[in-house]
Design goal:
Strand content: 5-15%
CATH superfamily of the largest domain: Collagenase (Catalytic Domain)
Number of helices: 25
Strand order of the largest sheet: 1-8-9-7
Radius of gyration: 25 Å
Number of domains: 2
Distance between the termini: 32 Å
Length: about 675
């Protein structure tokens, strides 16, 4: 469970990617070419920009870039990922070679990559890497031994029943407190278990078959495997019924319930929380956040009513589910068949080396990321980014000052919050050293368990300590960015500050349409439907007057209605409330970025380039960030769980609300790209 559950990112669905740049100098031919910030060759000029700007900006790219068999989605940003992967493959292979001169970061990352790449060892070992855990579960004598066993699994990142971590205290964001939250499902969201439409039933049937086949791979007879799978579905359905849905979780008040340990114990008397906490080796504490009390009640009822054998079956499944991608090919392929093919429509398993790169980034993101920034970012890049952030923050300040619907009382508080935002650019000020972590090139599963145990101990060890606003929730090479409402920080990893988002060879209009819009997006998250409920210090507090809060909700409702009418895929519409925060940030971010661009160009000659004015290039550069091809299966899954709108609506939905766009492309009233009643908050 991620420690910052309210973290709002610019992009969803990308696999985090670490880059480890070492002593090897790679030739340009060894890596795919980086995409340009704006490329006129990608346009579809058969479509009028005022009819469908997304198709106009991206149609040429869409036609020329079918989805690779190993992907469920292919975008222009994916090209940046692939370029990074090609670099990292060579470097990690070299870093995995033993040698006295290796740094700790290179040794840990290289050895883990080498262990992951040893496919022959995985085939030879079969289920041996998880046999000890399965035997421990099988030997569970009774329910009284369950808390220590669950703690043992949580320590190695096996997500069973619930999640336990540390998080900022919503009442005092300067302190870290213990946090218990819902978890323990094998499907992406609670609604997969509860909805009764045909597609949901098909997914459940496929999941049941997948669990059955996995138990068969573990050695169970066909009837026993099928019965075990039914048990798993039953237990997970019980957990799903008690879980809070994704829309309600957007309201921070719904996931903050501070309690004593005695109150936690009273919610689920059948589970010994004291024994569990002792086994986690967490520091002593008096109060914690119970994110969803009804879930803890449901979990307690499940423990009380389900038999020991049923609980053991559920735990065994999650051991196998978690480990399958790291075991022999039979398990890897079975896991991919369901989670890749069925859920996302991916046709082929990614090459092993690409999967191993992701493993390194996920387990040791700051070890590999540390070497990345030394090679590819540096102090100059950080300063350029800070100057652009300053320009965007100044523009947002002027926007707040000029809002006609906000009273002076709330306006002052909004300015206070904006001025308090901390800007984390490129990489952490202090790096994790991973002291005590053990990684062996000959033991892949054991090395990952060691890394997970280190991370768990690090997270729970922060309970009761001061919160650190300088801490990152993404690795430095990640192609993404985020806003943290509890820290009141915006974070831009070094990995995103590359073409097509930030291109040193391009004009200001292109870069403001690219990375500038991302900066504006993240700043606006501090004032979206969820972020606005946190004050300047990151505490959950109401700093709005009743009049202004009502005015915000009325304007936000416009976005709910607008995006809720857009199709996600087929006959499935977007959930306007689930995507509200990202839609507010997309719209506000583009307005802020455009204003900052025009302030930057003020007094200068507005020169055209490639036949387009600076304003037009701004809109085109932004639109081409969202060029994509995507499987129907992934589109259906994301419609249920992703707070981001699909690419076409992140373009057309935003620009249809902007008179500046209509003016730039001479769109007349009544055009598809001109809303009669445009939505606007910021």
């Amino acid at each position: 469970m991620h420690r910052d559950r309210l973290l709002s990112s610019w992009l969803a669905g990308l696999t985090p990617l670490a880059l480890l740049i070492g002593a090897i100098a790679l030739q340009a031919a060894d890596r795919p070419e980086a995409p340009r910030g704006f490329d006129p060759k990608l346009l579809d000029t058969d479509v009028a920009p005022c009819d469908d700007f997304y198709q106009y900006a991206c149609g040429g790219w869409i036609a020329a870039n079918p989805i690779p068999a190993e992907r469920s989605r292919w975008t222009r940003v994916s090209l940046l990922q692939e370029r990074n992967l090609a670099i990292l493959r060579s470097v990690l292979e070299d870093a995995g070679k033993p040698g006295a001169g290796r740094s700790r970061a290179a040794r840990l990352s290289g050895d883990l990559y080498a262990a992951c790449m040893d496919e022959e060892a995985a085939e030879r070992k079969g289920t041996d890497p998880i046999r000890g855990e399965l035997d421990t579960i099988a030997a569970l004598p009774d329910k009284s031994a369950l808390p220590s066993l669950v703690a043992r699994l949580h320590r190695v990142d096996v997500g069973t029943f619930f999640g336990f971590t540390s998080d900022e205290d919503f009442e005092d964001s300067t302190r870290m407190i213990a946090d218990v939250d819902q978890s323990g499902l094998g499907l992406p969201d609670r609604d997969y278990y509860l909805k009764d439409d045909e597609r949901s039933r098909q997914i459940r049937d496929a999941y049941l078959a997948h669990v059955t086949r996995t138990f068969a791979l573990l050695g169970r007879a066909p009837e026993e495997a099928a019965a075990a799978a039914r048990t798993v579905i039953g237990v997970e359905t019980d957990l799903a019924r008690s879980s809070l849905d994704v829309v309600k979780r957007r309201d921070p008040a719904n996931i903050f319930h501070k309690m004593t340990l005695a109150e936690l114990q009273a919610l689920s008397p059948a589970f010994d929380w004291t024994a569990y906490l002792k086994a986690t080796e967490a520091p002593a504490f008096e109060r914690l956040n119970v994110a969803v009390p009804d879930f803890v009640k449901g979990f307690g009822a499940l423990i009380e009513t389900r038999s020991v054998d049923e609980l053991k079956t559920y735990l065994a499944w999650h051991i196998a589910r978690d480990a399958s991608p790291r075991l022999s090919s039979a398990f890897v392929n079975e896991s991919f068949d369901f989670y890749g093919k069925t859920l996302q429509g991916t046709q082929e398993l990614r090459p092993r080396w690409k999967r191993c790169v992701d493993v390194v980034d996920g387990a040791l993101g700051e070890a590999s990321g540390r070497l990345f920034v030394e090679e590819a970012f540096g102090a100059e890049g950080k300063q350029r980014m800070l100057r652009m952030v300053d320009a965007l923050e100044g523009t947002l300040a002027r926007d707040i000052d000029s809002l006609p619907w906000m009273t002076e009382t709330t306006r002052k508080q909004a300015r206070r919050k904006l001025e308090a935002i901390a800007n984390n650019i490129g990489y952490p000020d202090e790096w994790k050293e991973y002291e005590g972590m053990q990684v062996s090139g000959g033991d892949f599963v054991g090395s990952l368990s060691s890394a997970a145990a280190w991370d768990f101990a690090w997270r729970v060890g922060k309970i009761g300590t001061p919160a650190d606003r300088r801490e990152w929730s993404m690795s430095p090479p990640t192609v993404n960015a985020y806003y943290s409402p509890q820290g009141n920080t915006i974070n831009f990893p070094a990995g995103i500050l590359q073409p097509p988002l930030f291109d040193q060879t391009m004009d200001e209009a292109t870069n403001f349409g690219g990375i500038g819009s991302v900066i504006g997006h993240e700043l606006t998250h501090g004032f979206d439907d969820s972020g606005r409920k946190f004050g300047p210090t990151g505490n959950l507090e109401d700093w709005w007057t009743e009049t202004d809060a009502r005015a915000f909700e009325e304007r936000a409702a416009c976005f709910v209605d607008q995006y809720g009418a857009y199709p996600a895929v087929g006959d499935v519409l977007l959930n306007g409330r689930l995507t509200l925060g990202e839609n507010v940030a997309d719209n506000g971010g583009m307005r802020i970025a455009l204003s900052a661009l025009e302030a930057t160009l003020a007094g200068g000659e507005a020169r055209s380039k490639d036949g387009f004015t600076p304003r037009q290039r701004f809109f085109l550069a932004n639109a081409q960030l969202w060029c994509r091809n995507q499987t129907e299966e992934l589109s259906r899954m994301l419609a249920n769980v992703d707070p981001h709108s699909p690419g076409p609506w992140r373009v057309n939905g935003v620009l249809a609300n902007m008179p500046e766009f209509a003016e730039a492309f001479a769109c007349r009233p009544g055009s598809a790209m001109v809303r009669a009643n445009p939505c606007r908050v910021w």
